[in-house]
């Protein structure tokens, strides 16, 4: 019998598998996707948010625990478990040497991501390189990996894991780590979670999935039906406004449009609906998917002129371009009169001071609702550009309630051999909102904890001396 079974194939699962092996356990990892699509949403990531008290290679200055916590507190609106959040924050300060030992390499922030140079460590080669490094290390160490192995049920006995089932196949293990993601690629469940709005629309019908098509929430639903303690709102997710031309699945990070804070956002009626300059883009980009989801038709339009070009990471698709604002309205099929009224009012309300997109500058609007509180420049220099945006779901926040040992709970009682990591428990820390790189912080921290605890459970506490 295998010691530790890890169900899932992304960052959290791989961290768990590697840590369990280092603790002395035999490990089998089951990935539902084919080998070419292994890695879940982690293959689409590019950085890890890291606490640090002084400069560290690719990380500038300092990003202390309290600042990280306040950033998280702000985006979640307090809907977070402080104990578990601080655990993940502190773990982010010590994980990178371990990651390097398993082949992960880091690089300085690229142009267009300099806001993150102090807070986030970027993976050389992105998330796909990180996933490949972990798989290579796992296989070299003797961790067994099976692809195209979607687990559809577990055998549980009084809160303890007994076996996993893949159809008629039964796989026993002494302990198990669940890290198989949420349900964002299950359109029926997404539709149920978001429901019907006051306009009679089903918003989820217009969602795109930035990440893997394999996260259908099968085990999450099974655990809910089995009496596991659940946390999180099913309608909450890491939801970004992405290019409306993106594919339904696996568009990844390149489908994001990062110029929202440098222009204005309009809905289908050519009206603004939120402050584009509320805060720095890395702290606010993940609110825009939900904001767009609340608009008619679940679509928004980012409008800029030529002045911001070169100040943001260029998206994979070029924007719609026109030499005049009326021409841009027509090209985007927006009502020209309403469009011009909105842009004229915005331009007249701009109070231009010293523009600086690296700080919360003094360029703002007056007498306009909603206001634009920073980086407000008139949109008046042709050519003009427009990007149609749809809600892009990265991962969902509904998950299994856990504690500092990453144990799954049943009726408030922690299982002694079933653990959870990654997206399946992120809702403990992320009740809502998001800030760049924190998903990888949570997955890495709890993946490593879950793997270690699973090995302890499987080996009767007799883990490798280095982990004791």
TrEMBL record:
Keywords from the UniProt entry: FAD, Flavoprotein, Oxidoreductase
Source organism superkingdom: Bacteria
Entry keyword Cytoplasm: no
Signal peptide range in chain numbering: none
Cofactor(s) it depends on: FAD
One Pfam assignment: FAD_binding_2
Record-annotated FAD-dependent oxidoreductase 2 FAD-binding domain positions: 3-429
NCBIfam families per UniProt: CobZ_N-term (TIGR02485), PRK08274.1 (NF006130)
Protein name, entry field: FAD-dependent tricarballylate dehydrogenase TcuA
Species annotation: Ramlibacter terrae
